[in-house]
Structures are given as C-alpha cells and as structure tokens.
Design a protein that fits this description.
homodimer; 242 residues; mainly alpha; Arc Repressor Mutant, subunit A; DNA-binding
Chain lengths: 242, 242
Amino acid sequence: MTEVEKQTEDRIFESATEIFMEKGMDGARMKDIANHAGINKALLHYYYRTKEHLFEAVFEKMAAVVFSRFTPVFDENATLEEKIRFFFREHISFLQKNPRLPAFILNEINRNPDRMKKLLQRFSINEVWDNLERLHHDELIRYNITREMMPQLMTSIAAISIFPFAAKGILEVLFEKSGYDYNDYLEKRKDFAADFVIRAIKGPDHGRNEKEQPLEKPSLHKGDLLVKAQQTSGNKGKRKNI
Amino acid sequence: MTEVEKQTEDRIFESATEIFMEKGMDGARMKDIANHAGINKALLHYYYRTKEHLFEAVFEKMAAVVFSRFTPVFDENATLEEKIRFFFREHISFLQKNPRLPAFILNEINRNPDRMKKLLQRFSINEVWDNLERLHHDELIRYNITREMMPQLMTSIAAISIFPFAAKGILEVLFEKSGYDYNDYLEKRKDFAADFVIRAIKGPDHGRNEKEQPLEKPSLHKGDLLVKAQQTSGNKGKRKNI
DNA sequence: CATACTTTTGACCATTCGGTTAAACCATAT
DNA sequence: ATATGGTTTAACCGAATGGTCAAAAGTATG
C-alpha cells in the first residue's frame, strides 16, 4: 500500500521530470506524462492537483539539485585555486550526468521570473560573499580581487561551466563540422576551465602582490566538499500542495 | 497597396517576434500575435500558412542576427587582444539592446535540435578557425594556443558574454539581494570580460614566449568590424514558404 | 461603372488540452 | 464476509487552440 503508493507517486514524479525537462512547461502534455508513467491521466491530478503544481514540484527539486552543487565548495578549507579546480571538475562531471538541467532551469526562469524570485528568497547570497572574504581574505588581496568584482568573477566561472551544456545543441553541430568531439571537449574542459580562470586571476597586471608563494595546499579529494542534493522528500499524505 | 501590404506583413512579423521571444514557440498563441498586430487571426495564416512557418521565419531572422554579430570580428586586421576587447564591448552592447535573444535561441535550439542542424549547414566554422590561424599565427604561438584548444577558448568567450543575459532572471534577483545593480554589472562587464580573457591567455605558465612585445597596435574604431545584420529580406509575394 | 484581383474579416470547425466525476478496484480491519 | 478507506480508471466536460472558408472590403484597370 504505502509501497505501491510511493511507487506510483515516484513514477509520476520521475516521468514528469523527464517530460518537463525535454519539452518544458508549455510543451509538456499531461497525457504524455501519464502514458510515460503507465497510468491513467486522472491519477496525475489525484497526486498533484494541477499541471502547475506538478511542474512546480519538479522545478523546485531540480533547482535545489543545481544550487546544492554550487554553494558547498565555498565553505571548506582549501586554497582558492584548489577550490576552483575542484569546482570545475565536480560541476562539469555533474552536468555530464544531467546535461539537460541548465537549459531547463535557464529557460523556465526566463519564462516565469517570479518563480525564481520566490525560490531564491531562502538562498543567502550574502553568506557566500562573506564566507569568501573570510576564508580567502589574503588570497583576494594578493590577487587584487575587490568585493565589487565578485559578481563578475562568479558569473564568469558559472558561465564557463554551464554554457557548454546550455548551448549543447549548437556546439555539437558546430564541433562535428570541424572534427571536434563534444564529449572529448567536455572532458578536457574540466582542466581547461580551471587553468583558464586561475590564469585570469593571477595574470599579469592583476595579482600584483604575487611574489609570496601559496601558503598551504591541503589536497582535496572527491566527496570532501560536495554534499548530496538534499531530497526535497515530497510531502507525504494523499495530495501535494494546496 | 504594396505599402499597406508591407505594413501588415511587417507588423505581423514584428508582433510574432515579440510574442515568440517572450513566450517561446509552445507558449505563444496565434490569437495573441494577431491581437498584438491589431489584425484578424485568419490574416496570420494568409501570410504565413502555419504557426510553424511563422515561427521558423522569426527564428531564422533572429539566429541570423545573432551569428552576424559573432563572425565578422575575426576577419579584420588588428591584434588578437584588441579584437577581444572590441568583441566584448560590441557584443555585450548589442545584447543590452536585445536582452532576450540569448535565452530565446538557446531555448528553442534545445527544444528542436534539428532546426539548428539545418540552420548551421550554411555556416562555415572551419573558415573561422582558418582565418584565426592565418591572421594571428604569431600570437597564437606566443600565447601557446593550439588548434585543439580553440573550441575551449571560443566557447569560454561566448559563455562570458552570453551567460549574463541567458541567466538574467537569476542574476537580477541575486544581485538585488546583495546590493549590486544588474545594469551596472553589465556595463562593467565589457571591460572586465576582456581583461579576464586576455589575462587568461597571457597568464603565467601559458604565454611562455611572451618576452617579445606586441608588434603593432592599430587602433580600432566602433563600426570598423561589425557589418549590419544582413536583412533576411523576407520572400515577397503573397504567401511565405510552401 | 464594371470587372478582376488581392486583402481582410467574422463565423465556424475539428481537435486537443487540462481538469472533473462517479464508479470500480483493492487491501485491510472488524 | 463485509464495511472502510485510500487508489485507479473510463468516460466525460468546457474552454481554448490552430486552422479553414466563404463572403465582404478594398483597389487597380478597362
């Protein structure tokens, strides 16, 4: 009973995720989701009252997954340079397993900005800045990174990691025409991106106080920094949301 | 007659552009486009047989505009560094005037990959690589940029310029919460992005043959490089496409 | 004015969509 | 076995959608 219930509910959620990710909110059909889950269409409305509710559930879960991959890297103890390397390695690897995520989030945010506004209410961006300034005070000074250029730096890092997936459809075609392999490109990007950003930070005319050598370099292992995406669990009980 | 015809046809196209850009192919309603253009719904089908045809026309025009802003910078005579600066200045300025373009293209490409495949058939990416290698042979060697890392470099540049607009919805909210202004961020990004990329290219452990000074530095003026987006003209005659 | 043509419209159509309902189903507790 | 409660279904509904059509309106030419 609870077993079966959980099964169908999960099957609905997973099917909805798949369909919504592929077609988007507007393009997805409730019928298709039901068929994909192998159930009657009415059952969708039994668990999630409306299409909007079902979509909201999927979107929030996906957004949570995305953001949980962004923040934790900033909290740990390691060199800024090491963190950058670690971030690109882990983040690109993560997106390789979820290549549709960036386009999905970017698209739906653009389609309904209020959703993001509501969702980001909880997220404290200032904490990120503060942590960065606290944990990497010396490095930021050495590299001449002021607080007002943090958004520039952060969005550049995010862009370099996310864009190859958001623009996957273009790049695959473009690369194929000139003999490059998209997957190979992604694999190499993990290191390239890190080198690129680190060079940009330390580069000439920028890291003016650079004479001093890096103080310590605690080695980082996969899994040290990232936490699992917290399961949004899903409200139990018969129906979801209002 | 021809005057009026052109008027309505253009009004349809412009209205369609606006609605499609905001809602996407799936979210847009023919009724809304007709209302926005101040005409009868049937008239849409008179000029463009189907929604698909109308969308195709809009999409191809927008894609042409986007790509026309990407390539010409590579053809001219200037330092690689100067070209990078010029590109970011012009490209970000262009996107400031068309902020919805990136999300629109990225989204619809993802939604219908075949469209891109068809559209990029004409576009010769190899010419871009060849031109780059020919015009900047010395610089590429000096900066240690191999042909196989060109895609990495190019996509990074594109990413840094495009992402702030594709993710506008997120960034605006995030910035507001921490006291940054989005428009100010964009303005500053024109220089930051250029500095960032140039530092990354010339940075330590990379530009090994860097002792030699830049050979010449022809100054670049706005308008030197960019060509107008070639008008896709629009087939005359009563109806478009099949 | 009469003719011939294109442009524009209001009414209409078939289909599809998200959503509802009442009844059937099924597992458990009494 | 039967009453109880959640679960699942087939059938149905009204609204909206993309699209059609025949007639009206407009315009140029004789």
